[in-house]
Amino acid sequence: AQKVTQAQTEISVVEKEDVTLDCVYETRDTTYYLFWYKQPPSGELVFLIRRNSFDEQNEISGRYSWNFQKSTSSFNFTITASQVVDSAVYFCALSEAGTGNQFYFGTGTSLTVIP
Amino acid sequence: GAVVSQHPSRVICKSGTSVKIECRSLDFQATTMFWYRQFPKQSLMLMATSNEGSKATYEQGVEKDKFLINHASLTLSTLTVTSAHPEDSSFYICSARGGGNNQPQHFGDGTRLSIL
Q: I need a labelling partner for B66 at 20 to 30 A (CA). Which of A11, A114, B73, B79 fits?
């Protein structure tokens, strides 16, 4: 079973629009970590955020914000006032304390911001 | 901080050639390094996990004799694709992590391997 689901395969928005990327995870561990990474067309993966399972406080970093809700097993990512440079594939990932090093990536959401 | 350097960024070579890819953590000690493979428009597929000084742990379906991994120091891991064939063409990306699973993996820039 897929541990991390990113149901949106591709999203296109017009510049300056807000966009939310969904991430739903599945785990039986009580201690786990959630991550978001950005992969621009050049290929490298850029770390954006890490969240542990005990901290449900939402986080804002500039135009980026994350909404972590354990009740719905979701860790959604919102970009406010999107820019062309935000165009990339975004991956959500889960790391479980119970499975050691294992990192589970979602299938990614390809975001295109149209100027 | 947390910079991972991967080299080379692109390789084009003939079938049957062995290709070595290096992954270095430049400003931290990577107790664990990971190797992933990514096909176009797909997610990252974990190939193997290596801890410094230990043998790598390969994921199911990954041939350990085909993809040799060495993690000789806390800052360097190498992946050697032995006797590469066209079906091995892919984007290979490494990551490094210092500390436990609560720490993020920091990724290299990837290596695009094309076997003719």
A: B73
* H or E segment and range at residue B72: strand B67-73
Using omega within 30 degrees of 0 as the cis cutoff, is the peptide bond preceding B86 cis?
Answer: no
- Please write the tens of the pLDDT for every residue from B82-100: 999 999 999 999 999 887 7
The CA-atom distances, in angstroms, between B93 and each of A17, B1, B38 are: 32, 19, 8
Which of B25, B46, B71, B101 is best to mutate for the A interface (most A CBs within 10 A)?
Answer: B101
Distance CA B22, CA B71 (A): 10
